[in-house]
Amino acid sequence: MKYSASSVWENKDRYDIVVVGAGHAGCEAALASARLGFRTLLFTINIESIAMMPCNPNIGGSSKGHLVREVDALGGEMGKVIDRAFIQSKMLNQSKGPAVHSLRAQADKADYGRKMRGVLQNQENLEIRQMEVTDILAENGKVTGVKTYSGAIYHCSAVVLCTGTYLCSRCIYGDVSTQTGPNGLQAANYLTDSLKSLGIRMYRFKTGTPARIDKNSIDFSKMEVQKGDEFVVPFSFTTKIEDVQIEQVSCWLTYTNEKTHEIIRNNLDRSPLFSGAIEGTGPRYCPSIEDKVVKFSDKNRHQVFIEPEGLDTNEMYVGGMSSSLPEDVQYAMYRSVPGLENARIVRNAYAIEYDCIDARQLKSTLEFKNVEGLFSGGQFNGSSGYEEAAAQGLIAGINAARKLQGKEGIVIDRSQAYIGVLIDDLVTKENHEPYRMMTSRAEYRLLLRQDNADLRLTKLGYEIGLIDEERYQKLLIKEKQIQEEIERVEHTNIGTSEEVQMLLDIYKSTPLVSGIKLSELIRRPELNYQCLAPIDPKRKSLPYDVAEQVNINIKYEGYIKRQQRQVEQFKKLEDKRIPEDIDYDEVHSLRIEAKQKLKEMKPSSIGQASRIAGVSPADVSVLLVYLQGK
């Protein structure tokens, strides 16, 4: 859709970096660039929608909780804000090992947006402007500014695109189709053409959201209550644990049934998802209820989570039942679920289509390969989820700032963080559906736990300039405390006293026949560092997070060391850089397909080249031999 303002004028205010879009990616990008000293202008179609949560009312979850804590460890904001705006918190997967433990917090949506907006408005070097950006301006393949719907031109040296699901977006349910963004907000209908004129390839993706139900119309007696954890762990490493021990609200669990499924099956011909009215590709790992009923026909029920959207609203989110079915079918479908027999819909469920990019056009720094100074983050990159968006926005904002500093961009690799896995997957793999982060995607997940994100990344955040001296010194103290306590535990002998044997009996642990190191007791599956405190009289009082690290590092020492050796091998390939000006036609014995893929993707290292589809291990060996001979 072409657009040309009736008059064009030049805004004389000079900005260093322009961020387009104020969702979770845009917020982190704008804060990062401003905090690094660059005058930043953040554009949003509607100021009231800053940090909006148009779908689920929670932050974190399996693998996503890892991303939030990594964003926080690098100096981002999401973790701090959710710690101030949550209404329920849970550590997921606690029955499993620490590698997959993940925090998830139910958010008060309105409060989360207000608090993030307050942070943005009070950030030095950052201005917010409500206006639609229609054009990216570039000369000789380099960004020079942006143009808005009003015809204003804003000059800058770098642009970060964080448009989310707003580009040419269309909301659909039944035969109702509206050219609008999420929650009925204005769509951004003109920027796509500008991007295409710059040679950027676009995809059409889809996602969806369930209905919101009036709390007063729900019979909770027919549902299972889902309470939060008694002891709440904060997302941010800067939040005091005592500050998050609040009174929490409950969520509720119910299930679909055969009646629900019959209603859906009888109306599939009216679903735009199955009729062909929806063109975009939807997320495999967050399917609509129609998809679930069709693809998992052997299941006679599916979980439905009823979650509050905030403390000052009666709207309840119907998790697990996103849909694009017609309004009358939605009423019948939801009212077939136990507890929802008299449900009153506040907002209809809908699917949303939107334009996004093929992220393989990006460098690992999230800068476009063919447009210097143009960066990109969030769902615009073909990902899904608030947390994935925030992580990308943070890295894009950091690297836009570093571009202007004349410094090399930050690239976090797969062995350092889930953020590294996320970005590497996006820029090297062909994704024909919205990408979702999962713990199974991380090869080194025992090292990339959510509990040690600060130990992995806060030094990097300090070097970048987003972590202040006080926080950095606290990290050094924490590291010292952990190391000293591990050494003490490794050298502490425990005898066979009656007190020891009684404690072991309580935990059904084999009694001792001779003395043993305290560390060996910790390694027993049924025991841990915390529960052995009564027989460890010389133990100092340590913070919760320090004790947690001592326990994990001792209990999983063998597995951790094995994975560290794997990382060493991985690093050898990642450290072998590929020159930007390499001519792959000169690399004899490379297959034609491999040459084509390598020319297209322009990998920065041998390791990255090895993860490109169409490049075989034999091709990698040929390339490695070629580079060694240069």
Automatic annotation (TrEMBL):
Domain of life, source organism: Bacteria
Keyword list, A-Z: Cytoplasm, FAD, Flavoprotein, NAD, tRNA processing
Record-level GO cellular component terms: cytosol
Subcellular location: Cytoplasm
GO biological process assignments: tRNA methylation; tRNA wobble uridine modification
Location of the tRNA uridine 5-carboxymethylaminomethyl modification enzyme C-terminal subdomain domain: 554-625
Main location: cytoplasm
Binding positions (FAD): G21, A22, G23, H24, A25, G26
GO molecular function, a single term: flavin adenine dinucleotide binding
Family annotation (InterPro entries): FAD/NAD-bd_sf, GIDA_C_N, MnmG, MnmG-rel, MnmG-rel_CS, MnmG_C, MnmG_C_subdom, MnmG_C_subdom_sf
Function: NAD-binding protein involved in the addition of a carboxymethylaminomethyl (cmnm) group at the wobble position (U34) of certain tRNAs, forming tRNA-cmnm(5)s(2)U34.
HAMAP family: MnmG_GidA (MF_00129)
Assembly and oligomerization: Homodimer. Heterotetramer of two MnmE and two MnmG subunits.
Name of this protein: tRNA uridine 5-carboxymethylaminomethyl modification enzyme MnmG
Organism: Schaedlerella arabinosiphila
Lineage: Bacteria, Bacillati, Bacillota, Clostridia, Lachnospirales
